[in-house]
Design brief:
This is Amidohydrolase-related domain-containing protein. InterPro entries: Amidohydro-rel, Metal_Hydrolase, Metallo-dep_Lactonases. Belongs to the metallo-dependent hydrolases superfamily. It comes from Thalassobaculum fulvum. GO terms for molecular function: hydrolase activity. The chain has 304 residues and is α/β, with parallel strands linked by helices. It has a single domain, classed as Metal-dependent hydrolases (TIM Barrel). The protein contains 12 helices and 8 strands. An 8-stranded parallel beta sheet has the order 1-2-3-4-5-6-7-8. The longest helix is centred in the last third of the chain and has 16 residues. The protein is globular, with a radius of gyration of 18 Å. The relative contact order is 0.15. The mean pLDDT is 97.
Length: 304
């Protein structure tokens, strides 16, 4: 890594904290869920807090961060937001956050108002119902982005000026593009690059076409994060095409990089991810690299 790379400021646009025993994280404390990286028992064994996060940064200059909701007990989605603000008041981290919301719930208006009352909240996330594979996709399935109940809650985001952080497999991005078209005042930030885990030629073709359709909507952005492949170590060679194709489709000013830590510690160290991203983007213009690692996230999440 060059001196210039070491000095490149980073806003980590997607990471998690959790304190096991404080609040409740059903997927970490109560029961094991199907997980895209397979065995995640290592995540269930310890809390992940400020000192862990700062220690993982190593030689990379992480100046600010955006906390992504960590699937806190959905019976109290604003509880996590309250806890994180207390954490910020004590430590200065995180600098912005994405809250949990369930658009079809009867209390969605109250939940969104609750999140919006906190100064660090910029967005909310709900993972819509998703088919396990492209051939199992059913348009308009209950809980999907085309479900009228989902959309009824989603339309309330603009009332509070909140973004939508979307995590879904790429074969649902057509519905995401429709959502962006129908609600042009709400920004959609696609998480984890559309989850391109199938690296076969057919899988990559499907992913690129879906990403291109979403990129055509001007009120969409993407996080280059969470692109691990089950059973394989994160390497620049494995990820190069995904990263560069995403930048080509969306442009650097609509892309931001993120660690997805500690989840992606299952497939790489923090250093492996950020050193790899710096290597992959080494030939880009300096302004584009600055956008990817810092400026896009700064503009989108306005970290305190």
């Amino acid at each position: 890594m060059t001196d210039a790379d070491a000095d490149l400021p980073i806003i980590d646009a997607h990471h998690h904290f959790w304190d096991l025993g404080h609040g409740r994280y059903p997927w970490l404390e109560d029961h094991v869920i199907p997980f895209r990286y397979g065995d995640y028992s290592a995540l269930r064994q310890r809390s992940y807090l400020i000192d862990d996060f700062l220690g993982d940064h190593g030689r990379h200059r992480v100046v600010k961060s955006v906390h992504m909701e960590a699937e806190w007990d959905p019976r109290d989605p604003v509880g996590e937001t309250r806890w994180l603000h207390a954490l910020h008041d004590r430590t200065g981290w995180p600098h912005a956050m994405v809250g949990q919301a369930w658009f079809a719930r009867e209390d969605i208006a109250e939940v969104l108002a609750g999140h919006a009352a906190f100064p660090l909240v910029r967005s909310v996330r709900q993972k819509p119902a998703a088919a396990p594979s492209p051939d199992a996709f059913v348009a308009g399935a209950p809980g999907s982005m085309a479900d009228p109940a989902f959309r009824a809650g989603y339309r309330l985001l603009s009332r509070h000026g909140l973004h939508y952080d979307l995590q879904t497999p790429w074969w649902h991005l057509g519905e995401a593009a429709d959502l962006a078209r129908d609600f042009p005042d709400t920004l959609i930030v696609l998480n984890h690059t559309g989850l391109p885990s199938d690296r076969s030629p057919a899988g990559l073709d499907g992913w690129r076409n879906a990403m291109a359709a979403l990129a055509d909507r001007p009120n969409t952005m993407v996080k280059i994060s969470g692109i691990g492949v089950p059973g394989q170590r994160w390497t620049p060679d494995l990820q190069r095409a995904i990263v560069l194709d995403t930048i080509r489709l969306f442009g650097a000013d609509r892309c931001m990089v993120a660690s997805n830590f500690p989840v992606d510690s299952l497939c790489a160290t923090y250093d492996e991810i950020f050193a790899g991203l710096k290597e992959i983007t080494a030939d880009l213009a300096a302004a584009d690299r600055r956008a990817l690692f810092h400026d896009t996230a700064s503009r989108t999440y306005r970290p305190a």
